[in-house]
Design goal:
With 245 residues, the protein is an alpha+beta fold. It is 29% helix and 29% strand. It has one domain.
Amino acid sequence: MITRLAESLGYQVVEVDDGDGTIAVGGHDGASALRVGWKPVIVEGYTGSGSIDRFAIRAKDPALRTSLRELRGRLQVPAVDDDPVELAEPLLRLLEPGDYGVRTWHDANVHIEPFGENETAWWYPYEPIGTEGTAVIPTDSWPPPDDEAVERYTDAIEHGERPLAVLLRSEPPGDEQDCAAFLIDGHHKLAAYRRNEIAPHFLDIAHLADRHPCAPDDLRAVTAGDEQLEQSAANLLRYLERDRH
């Protein structure tokens, strides 16, 4: 079923049998976790507040984000639109073994949900202004701090280039208006697309697995005993724990 969905959305299905698991995404959309160096960095999901609001929580330990930043040199993809599986190969080698869908996603309809106070991001899907399309969750500073790099990409995009930022998501989008994806690489590219008011282009990688939510311990790791975060995530945690029984 999930393979057919992926193929219908333009993903090529590839089996990763030799990935080392340095980067991993687990769970399903609405209850997923991004892990880097085998440690949870971000968990996203529904608040379970009786509304449809969604949120993401990022671990406060800056060393975890630094470790992903250091990996980005191994994730660079060329600007040329070529075979998406070949473009994704550097990242596929870092993922845990399993099946993945890979596509180049052109003129994507997305909104960006950066982390704010207490390392949280909140949004409502389907809002008429600001949250149309896929929620892109940055894994580094947003907006990106290197304005010279943004300007270089801005100029390139103005001259017709379409560089690919890299997304990793827990499953193919069943509803493109209500789903989330982690921005693994390409923060400056995405900022340049926004500066040009041009829809971005992505190398989009989706995990193809059984629809189980991420582990409760992933959420506990990112809340790390913070009472405010634990309260915000309480309903999501109950859902994750219930699935384990």
